[in-house]
């Protein structure tokens, strides 16, 4: 059992600190030089009963790298293949009235020209990205033929004698979309996926992968690449499929998909069919763990367990569970959130009795004919914290909403917010208080709601549009675009986007699209990538850190309309301290009209960028980008399944990665500036950025469900003072970018001058659920952060803000979990649980 003694702060010290004016009080409390030997902090409890997860920092060797592709040496200018003037057809496209819905019988992606490449491997122009298992590899899909080998051959296929199962093409060098047309595909043994794999079916008639009656094995699909640790299984997708295990005896131990994976993975729009009344079948399992972010929009029928969760953190959204004994079993999860899910006919909808849970948040979900909605344990401290909000339990009779350690403690519906765990509220004890089940009011902003729930949206497939409503950006006559990691594609990408805005959907085949200036995405745009097609910046336009230039700019201030981006990657090809990778200015005409799904950031750590090979020394010499994501005040957007990663290790080799990207996500979206619209962050992670991971600055009406972060591994003791925050980005650009200036820290205090996980200033109506903020390294030394040592001083800061509602706050190795100018001070010591500290509710209503 993972329990700590409940430790309380010395009340006399609290009262003394609170006698100061608010700002002076904050400075006094946060001056860690003065606190070095202060009894204000009791001894840190040592975790001896729960093994620390150790990040795996290995990459896949890229043996077959194309050394001639070096974009940082300068992008090649286009040689025009057609006259510059626009054709009549292009000009006419400006007034086409938007893509037209015709509900075709064939999926556009199956028909479109597939000319994607893998630029940074030898002969990458011939690399087979798109792989139709029927037409290219001989699968039958007729419901009787054994298609296992045909599909596995499609997965494994490589180039020049190097196949994808040989672990030689790097993480980023082997992108492959394994496409299954409609049909029933019989499997006699497991399929094995690898990093860079997208297993995709036809969403118009999702194909079925069905276990044969004599299936050899106990897992249908191994989603985890066996060559990699679970925590380095990135860039894997499974979507638009039906899985069926009904041919396997219902009492046999069997798993449909082993999903021991991490960030930048997508599992969506799938159906899992298992035998009813099974004692052995599980839909989704994570036996090797991982560091995941998001999965959603699934249907899981039958089995003994729908999802067996064993991961550092996860968001589960939009899943319908039916007829399983247990819907979700939290075997292990430090920080989990379940949103917009339905449970029908289970003994237990959610089982979190394992004693290996930090916190669980359940939002906007319902149960029908379920014996127990949530089964948990009552720890009396931060461990196994539970938050229920807007939950309906229609079990009737003896059905219970919460059973804790075998005792019924809650029945019926939860209209507002019900909390079990440590809480901090305005006017309450500065030490916080443990509640075994209390109701709080969370006045949700109407700008964030649809039918009373927080708005959510499934990833668009655009299946309602026929092929003639799409443009392959590499196939536009007169406007050549290469995506080869060498040629400057800026001008022609901009021409195509401006021409076809509000007209066609733009498909970016797999590749790396090199740009030397801003790509402008106008209102009316819909962009779809392929296995994370990359836009990569290079050149002197991105060099000035005091006047950053967006690599991709979505709309202008004041624009209202549609701008959607799916399956794309944003990166840099050089060390570019003035590059803001993505800036969104446009507001959505309707919720979800402006959105990003399964789109990510990567700076360093991969072939095709000078950052990969030139950043093993001082971080001050590798200010590789100004920032990742900027949502400006006029924007409103829906963002789902996004990983903002500044590399902590090399995915394609063993180069050191001490990278100083300035900022993670700067969120200034405000309903006061965008016409009364909300912004939603659903399953996001920002990691290893220098000043902060999330910065809510002058923001209003924001929902965030699942925020996962890690500080840069190089920060802390071990590096010179020229990289103590805000260096190497000093002076901090407080105006206009809202940077923290670290004036709360002593000048040489390396543990205080580490990146904020969450920095909140002058904001209101923030609804933040499920945060997992982890510190693993201190000056690149892992040992300093083991056993809950406080190897970072601060995690979250709230200044000049009101109506901040935080539920399920989890930190690792952070002394102060929450600080603020109104006297808030929440410490890890006083809230033991999970991976270090857990707070169920942190309410700054103000």
TrEMBL record:
InterPro entries associated with the record: Pectin_lyas_fold (IPR012334), Pectin_lyase_fold/virulence (IPR011050), QRT3-like (IPR039279), RHGA/B-epi-like_pectate_lyase (IPR024535)
Enumerate the spans annotated as Rhamnogalacturonase A/B/Epimerase-like pectate lyase domain.
130-350, 482-535
The keyword Nucleotide-binding belongs to this UniProt entry's keyword annotation: no
What range does the record give for the signal peptide? 1-17
What PANTHER family does this protein map onto?
PECTATE LYASE SUPERFAMILY PROTEIN DOMAIN-CONTAINING PROTEIN-RELATED, POLYGALACTURONASE QRT3
Xref: Pfam families: Pect-lyase_RHGA_epim
- Example of a GO MF term: polygalacturonase activity
From the Swiss-Prot or TrEMBL record, give the protein name: Glycoside hydrolase family 55 protein
Keywords, A to Z, come to: Hydrolase, Signal
Q: Key word Hydrolase present in the record?
A: yes
What CDD domains is this protein classified in? Answer: GH55_beta13glucanase-like
């Amino acid at each position: 059992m993972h329990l700590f003694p409940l430790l309380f702060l010395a009340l006399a010290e609290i009262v003394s600190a609170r006698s100061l004016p608010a700002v002076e009080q904050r400075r006094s409390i946060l001056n860690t030089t003065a606190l070095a030997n202060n009894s204000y902090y009791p001894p840190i409890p040592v975790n001896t009963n729960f093994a620390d997860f150790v990040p795996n920092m290995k990459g896949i060797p890229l043996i077959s790298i194309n050394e001639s592709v070096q974009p940082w040496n300068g992008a090649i200018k286009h040689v025009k293949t057609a006259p510059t003037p626009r054709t009549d057809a292009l000009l006419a496209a400006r007034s086409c009235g938007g893509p037209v819905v015709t509900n075709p019988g064939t999926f556009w992606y199956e028909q479109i020209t597939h000319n994607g490449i893998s630029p940074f491997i030898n002969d990458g122009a011939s690399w087979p990205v798109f792989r139709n298992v029927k037409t290219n590899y001989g699968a039958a899909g007729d419901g009787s033929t054994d298609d296992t080998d045909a599909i596995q051959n499609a997965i494994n296929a490589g180039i020049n004698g190097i196949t994808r199962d040989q672990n030689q093409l790097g993480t980023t060098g082997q992108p492959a979309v394994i496409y299954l047309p409609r049909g029933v595909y019989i499997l006699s043994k497991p399929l094995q996926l690898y990093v860079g794999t997208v297993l995709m079916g036809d969403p118009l008639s999702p194909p079925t992968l069905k276990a044969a009656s004599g299936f050899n094995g106990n897992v249908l699909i191994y989603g985890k690449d066996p060559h990699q640790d679970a925590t380095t299984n990135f860039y894997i997708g499974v979507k638009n499929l039906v899985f069926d295990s009904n041919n396997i005896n219902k009492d046999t131990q069997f798993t449909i998909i082993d999903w021991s994976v991490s960030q930048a993975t997508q599992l969506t729009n799938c159906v899992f069919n298992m035998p009813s009344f099974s004692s052995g079948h599980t839909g989704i399992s994570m036996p090797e763990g991982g560091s995941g972010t998001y999965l959603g929009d699934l249907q899981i029928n039958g089995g003994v367990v729908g999802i067996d969760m064993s991961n550092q953190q996860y968001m589960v959204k939009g899943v319908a569970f039916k007829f399983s004994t247990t819907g979700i079993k939290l075997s292990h999860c430090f920080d989990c959130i379940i949103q917009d899910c339905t449970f029908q006919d289970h003994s237990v909808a959610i089982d979190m009795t394992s004693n290996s849970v930090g916190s669980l948040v359940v939002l906007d979900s319902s149960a029908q004919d379920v014996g127990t909605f949530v089964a948990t344990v009552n720890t009396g401290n931060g461990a196994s914290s539970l938050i229920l909000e807007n939950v309906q339990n229609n079990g009737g009779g003896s059905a219970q909403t919460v059973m804790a350690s075998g005792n019924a403690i809650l029945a019926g519906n939860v209209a507002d917010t019900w909390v079990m765990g440590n809480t901090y509220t305005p006017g309450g004890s500065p030490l916080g208080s443990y509640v075994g089940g209390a109701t709080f009011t969370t006045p949700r902003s109407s700008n964030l709601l649809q039918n009373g729930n927080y708005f959510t949206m499934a990833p668009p497939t655009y299946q309602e549009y026929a092929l003639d409503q799409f443009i392959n950006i590499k196939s536009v006559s007169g406007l050549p675009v290469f995506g080869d990691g060498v040629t400057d594609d800026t001008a022609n990408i901009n021409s195509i986007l401006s021409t076809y805005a509000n007209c066609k959907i733009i498909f970016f085949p797999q590749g790396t699209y090199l740009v030397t200036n801003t790509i402008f995405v106008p209102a009316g745009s819909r962009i779809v990538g392929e296995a994370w097609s990359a836009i990569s910046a290079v050149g002197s336009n991105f060099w000035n850190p005091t006047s950053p230039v967006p690599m991709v700019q979505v709309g202008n201030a004041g624009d209202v309309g549609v701008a959607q981006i799916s399956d794309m990657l944003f990166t840099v090809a050089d060390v570019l301290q003035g590059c803001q990778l993505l800036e969104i200015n446009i507001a959505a005409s309707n919720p979800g009209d402006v959105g990003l799904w399964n789109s990510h950031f990567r700076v360093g750590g991969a072939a095709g960028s000078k950052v990969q090979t030139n950043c093993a020394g001082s971080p001050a010499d590798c200010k590789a980008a100004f920032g990742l994501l900027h949502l400006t005040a006029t924007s409103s957007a829906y963002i789902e399944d996004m990983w903002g990663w500044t590399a902590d290790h090399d995915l394609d080799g063993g180069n050191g990665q001490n990278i100083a990207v300035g900022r993670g996500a700067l969120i200034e979206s405000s309903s006061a500036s965008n016409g009364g619209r909300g912004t939603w962050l659903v399953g996001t992670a920002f990691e290893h950025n220098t000043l902060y991971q999330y910065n809510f600055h002058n923001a209003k009406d924001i929902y965030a469900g699942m925020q996962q972060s890690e500080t840069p591994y190089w920060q802390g003791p071990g590096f010179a003072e020229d990289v103590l925050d805000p260096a190497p980005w000093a002076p901090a650009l407080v105006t206009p970018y809202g940077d923290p200036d670290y004036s709360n820290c002593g000048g040489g205090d390396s543990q205080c001058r580490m990146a904020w996980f969450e920095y909140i200033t002058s904001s209101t109506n923030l609804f933040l659920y499920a945060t997992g903020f982890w510190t693993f390294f201190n000056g690149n030394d892992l040992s300093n952060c083991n056993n809950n040592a406080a190897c970072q001083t601060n995690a979250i800061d709230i200044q000049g803000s009101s109506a901040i509602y935080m539920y399920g706050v989890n930190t690792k190795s952070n002394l102060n979990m929450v600080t603020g100018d109104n006297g808030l001070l929440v410490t890890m010591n006083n809230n033991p649980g999970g991976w270090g500290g857990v707070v169920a509710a942190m309410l700054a209503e103000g």
